[in-house]
Design brief:
- By secondary structure, this protein is of the alpha+beta class.
- The protein has one domain: Methylpurine-DNA glycosylase (MPG) (3-methyladenine DNA Glycosylase, Chain A), CATH 3.10.300.
- Strands 1, 2, 3, 4, 5, 6, 7, 8 and 9 form a nine-stranded antiparallel β-sheet that branches.
- The longest helix has 7 residues.
- The chain binds a DNA duplex through strand 3, strand 4 and helix 3.
Length: 179
DNA sequence: TAAGTGATCTCT
DNA sequence: GAGATCACTTAA
């Protein structure tokens, strides 16, 4: 069988404006190695959290021990526990000192950020690790290009506390064909 | 619609 | 230290 070796997305992909990265993620494959077996699913839903001013972002009040990874370089995992039981999986984007990340909300059959991490057995051991194959959790470009019209932009979920402006920002990207 | 769940942040 | 808050899910 052909040895495809799909390109693994790295800093070149993630170190760009957060919204552009978020728009490009649907159709890319989230890959997870568990005990030698590789599980991969196409991303279908993501949300961008971009910069100091984004009141929905953990970073809008400045750096804390939890969100420190968001202030680091692009291409690292930011994982944290929410509501006491769900791990949220994010990829840091943009340059160092600029806090931004993209929450992965759905991939393949896994719908919902908490269910996604449960299915892929992701917890805070990934926090601060690089998005690389050697770390067992990475993203591949398998040549799937999602037409712009199939990517729907809508407001983010669960961020009503952010005030009317930031709550309504269309920072959520959903791949229609798979939603 | 509401409860479960526990780390984290913001006050004292 | 105490209290409030949460980038959610599930069961009714």
């Amino acid at each position: 069988m052909l040895k495809t070796d799909s390109p693994v997305l790295d800093t070149r992909f993630f170190n760009r404006p957060t919204l552009k990265v978020a728009r490009d993620l649907p159709g890319k494959y989230l890959c997870r190695r568990i005990k030698g077996k590789i599980l991969s699913q196409p991303l279908v839903e993501v949300e961008a959290y971009d910069g100091f001013d984004d009141k929905a972002s953990h970073a809008h009040r400045g750096s804390t021990p939890r969100n420190a990874v968001m202030f680091g370089p692009a291409g690292y995992w930011y994982v944290y526990l929410c509501y006491g039981m769900h791990w949220m999986l994010n990829i840091v984007t943009g340059p160092s000192e600029y806090p931004a990340a993209i929450l992965l909300r759905g991939a393949g059959e896994f719908s919902g950020p908490g269910r996604l991490t449960k299915a892929l057995q992701i917890n805070n051991t990934f926090n601060g690790k690089q998005v690389t194959r050697s770390n067992g959790l990475w993203v591949e470009d398998r040549g799937v290009t999602v037409p712009a019209k199939e990517v729907k932009r809508m407001p983010r979920v669960g961020v009503d506390y952010a005030g009317p402006v930031w709550t309504k920002k269309p920072y959520r990207f959903v791949w229609n064909a798979h939603a």
